[in-house]
Specification:
Elements (H helix, E strand, L loop, with lengths): L1 H33 L6 E3 L5 E4 L36 H18 L8 H4 L9 E2 L1 H15 L3 H10 L1 E2 L10 E3 H9 L14
Helix pairs in contact: 4-5
Length: 197
Amino acid sequence: MLIRQALTGLKALLVFTLLLGLAYPLTMVLIAQVVPTQDSTIRNADGKVVGSALMAQPVTGDDWFYPRPSAGDYDGLASGASNLAATNPELVAAITARRTEIAEREDVDPARIPADAVTASASGLDPEISPEYARLQIDRVARETGLSREEVTTMVERNTKQPILGFIGEPRVNVVTLNNDLQNTPGTAVDVADPEN
């Protein structure tokens, strides 16, 4: 009886060792060889690394698209939210100040400003904004860069990701890749050295 149980255990150990210790890792290696590399590195026209499509960057100047606010000043080491409740007076004041600033910068009614424009993401590093916030910025960016509204709109559309399978998630615009497109567009008035300047 004991020998039979030991043999059953050894057989199970052998099967699981082959499946999980050999077959599964080899399958993952094979998939990694077949699937194209998902490199998030963003390079400018000269090939210089200027950022990652996965991490928001701060911008200054009216010739750029602005990302969502960041509770940690876009510092990867300080990633996180403010953890302030929705009714916290400090958060309410910050949202009000951001809404006023954006309304003045974009020359729009404060009621038109979407929530993601005035609130930070949970990580504070989210590189994506809503299409509504991106469209709100098109006129200013076109005016400041010397591009036509149509050219800037096309860039926004090109950097817009649709929901997975058409229904999982929301449409979103990657501001980092969008600003890189602006930087690499010939004939713009954008400082081509760095989006932070």
